[in-house]
Design brief:
With 150 residues, the protein is α+β, with helices and mostly antiparallel strands. It has four helices and five strands; from the N terminus they run βααβββαβα. The structure holds coenzyme A (COA).
Length: 150
């Protein structure tokens, strides 16, 4: 069953979130609070089986800033998607993304954007299977700035 995750029943989501983004646990409380306090800006969906076990989750947001490849604004953005290894290939990601799409429509968005690492070919294939089209490939750069002493 796909359901919207809330502050009251988010326990099953956190270990899966940590599996997708190792090391994110330290930030979870802050992230969780800000997401659940802004339901028109953030969505967390989970897929829970008949035994109450959380099998996967999707996180989405409404982005007001420019999102590569889009032609409208604001757009909905698929921030994270993870299905536990033992629950894959059963259509759970497809159901989660369908739920995100419904929310995006409800939020009056005309586009749903997403991204994936260059070498995550499984994710590329899944996005294509779910109706996404590739738009751009981007390399991020970073330059640490030394503090100037006056
Ligand atoms: C990618 C992931 C979310 C797919 O979850 P899933 O529940 O197994 O996917 P589904 O069963 O709903 O499959 C949806 C579609 O994607 C395709 N797909 C899913 N995994 C695929 C893979 N490894 N290779 C090729 N296609 C794949 C399926 O064939 C299906 O298409 P179909 O219905 O036309 O057959 C899951 O493997 C995962 O959590 N991976 C690790 C985290 C990750 O990479 N997340 C995405 C970050 S951008």
């Amino acid at each position: 069953m796909i359901k919207r995750c809330t502050w009251l029943d988010h326990a099953g989501w956190l270990p899966l979130r940590e599996a997708l983004w190792p090391g994110s646990a330290a930030d979870n409380e802050r992230d969780t609070l800000s997401m659940f306090n802004a339901p028109h800006r953030y969505l967390v969906l989970t897929c829970v089986d008949a035994n109450g076990q959380t099998q996967g989750f999707a996180e989405a947001s409404i982005r007001e800033d420019y999102v590569n490849g889009t032609s409208t604004s604001p757009v909905a953005f698929l921030e994270g998607l993870f299905v536990a290894p033992g629950s894959r290939n059963q259509g759970i990601a497809r159901q989660l993304v369908a739920g995100v799409e419904q929310w995006a429509r409800d939020m009056s968005c005309a586009e749903l954007a997403s991204d994936a690492l260059l070498d995550n070919h499984a994710s590329h294939a899944m996005h294509e299977a779910l109706g996404f089209a590739e738009t751009e490939r981007v390399v991020y750069f970073l330059k640490p700035l030394a503090t100037l002493k006056h």
